[in-house]
Design a protein that fits this description.
This protein is mostly beta strands and about 60 residues long. It contains no helices and five strands. It has a domain of about 30 residues. A hairpin with a 3-residue loop joins strand 3 and strand 4. The structure holds zinc ion.
Length: about 60
Amino acid sequence: MDTSVSPRIVSVYWALDGGIHHASCGQRMVLQARQPDALHFACLACSESVRLPISALARIPVAT
Ligand SMILES: [Zn+2]
């Protein structure tokens, strides 16, 4: 397992409600599309979309 080459996830975080939230506005994001290797989330509050590789899901920070 080599995590040193993986960029840190800063655009989204897991919230305590189990959803993925947008880091810049704090709103919950909705799953927009699912690909074999990535998930696309959309933020309804600021109309941004974020692509998350499946391999990066385990590295999303959890809100405390
Ligand atoms: Zn947002």
